[in-house]
Design a protein that fits this description.
Organism: Alteromonas confluentis
Protein name: Flavodoxin
CATH architecture of one domain: 3-Layer(aba) Sandwich
Order of helices and strands: HHHHEHEHHEHEHHE
Structural class: alpha/beta
Strand content: 5-15%
Number of helices: 10
CATH superfamily of one domain: P-loop containing nucleotide triphosphate hydrolases
Largest sheet: 5 strands, parallel
GO biological process, one term: DNA replication
CATH class of one domain: Alpha Beta
CATH topology of one domain: Rossmann fold
Helix content: 40-55%
GO molecular function: ATP binding
Shape: elongated
C-alpha cells in the first residue's frame, strides 16, 4: 500500500510538480506550527500596543522623567521610610479588592528640597509601568491661576473652555498629584477652598487616588486649606509621610573666602 507521501509524489509527477521532500510535515504538525506563529505575532502586537499605551500615559502625565527610584539617593531615615511606604502603596495596586475598596491619599509634607516631588513622581512612573494607571501631575498654584482667568468672559483664548476640560481631567484621572499645595500662602481664598474641597470629594466618591505635596506642617496646612477642604482630605484612607532630612538641592553658595577677594557691598539708592 502506498504511503501518503508516495501518493502525493505520484500526483506531483503527473502534474509536472516537484516531489514532496523528506521534510514533509503532516497537517497536524503544520497546524500547530501555524498556531504557534500566530500566537507569537499576537503577543508581539499586544506587547507593542502596551508599550505605546505606557508611552502615551507617560506623555500625558507631565511627570519629570528623572523622578525615578533609580535616581533617588536614600541618604536619610525619612527618605528610606518614605520609599518603603511608597513601595507598599505601589504593591497594594495588585490587590483588586484594595483598589475597589475606596480612595487613598498620600500626604507628603516637609521643607523644600527634601525629595517629596521626586518620590511622588517615582511612584507615578511605577504605577504607569506596572498597572497602566493614568496619572496627572499639576502644581496647585497653576490650577488656581487658570481657574481665576477662566472667569474672564471677554478673553479670546477660550480659557474658560480649557479650564472646564482640565477640571474634568482632574476628576477622571486615576492618580492626581498636586504639588506645591498652598506654597507661599497662609490661607487659600474661600472660593478656592471650596473648589479644591469639592474636587477632592468628587474624586473620593469615584474612588480615585491622590498625592498632595506641601511645605506646610499639618497644623499650618489645615489653616491654609480651611476646614471644609481639610475635612475632605481626612475622608480618604490617608498615608502621612513627613520629610525632615537635609535639602538635596545644590546650593548657590560661593566657595571662595570673601577675605581673599573682597568686593564692595551693594547698597541700593546710594548717594555719591
Amino acid at each position: 500500500m502506498q504511503s501518503l507521501k508516495d501518493k502525493l509524489n505520484s500526483l506531483a509527477r503527473a502534474m509536472g510538480k516537484p516531489e514532496v521532500q523528506d521534510g514533509y510535515q503532516d497537517y497536524e504538525t503544520l497546524r500547530k506550527e501555524y498556531e504557534r506563529k500566530a500566537n507569537d505575532e499576537v503577543r508581539q502586537l499586544q506587547q507593542d500596543s502596551k508599550i505605546k499605551r505606557i508611552h502615551d500615559l507617560h506623555g500625558r502625565s507631565d511627570l519629570n522623567p528623572r523622578w525615578t527610584f533609580a535616581n533617588l539617593v536614600e541618604d536619610s531615615d525619612d527618605v528610606i521610610e518614605a520609599v518603603s511606604i511608597a513601595h507598599s502603596f505601589i504593591a497594594a495596586h495588585s490587590d483588586r479588592e484594595w483598589r475597589q475598596a475606596g480612595s487613598h491619599m498620600m500626604l507628603f509634607y516637609g521643607d523644600y528640597g527634601r525629595g517629596k516631588s521626586h518620590i511622588a513622581g517615582a511612584i507615578a512612573h511605577e504605577l504607569i509601568e506596572q498597572y497602566e494607571i493614568t496619572v496627572l501631575y499639576r502644581q496647585l498654584s497653576t490650577l488656581m491661576e487658570m481657574r481665576h482667568f477662566s472667569f474672564d468672559f471677554g478673553s479670546q483664548d477660550n480659557i474658560g473652555q480649557r479650564f472646564r476640560e482640565a477640571h474634568q481631567e482632574l476628576l477622571e484621572v486615576d492618580l492626581l498629584i498636586l504639588d506645591e499645595v498652598c506654597v507661599n500662602e497662609t490661607m487659600l481664598k474661600k472660593n478656592q477652598q471650596s473648589w479644591l474641597g469639592n474636587l477632592l470629594r468628587q474624586r473620593l466618591v469615584n474612588k480615585k487616588n491622590c498625592i498632595l505635596i506641601t511645605n506646610h506642617n499639618l497644623t499650618e496646612l489645615e489653616l491654609a486649606l480651611g476646614k471644609y477642604c481639610f475635612e475632605s482630605i481626612k475622608e480618604y484612607d490617608t498615608y502621612k509621610v513627613r520629610f525632615s532630612g537635609p535639602s538635596r538641592r545644590d546650593g548657590l553658595v560661593n566657595d571662595e573666602n570673601p577675605a581673599d577677594n573682597p568686593q564692595p557691598r551693594y547698597q541700593p539708592n546710594q548717594v555719591r
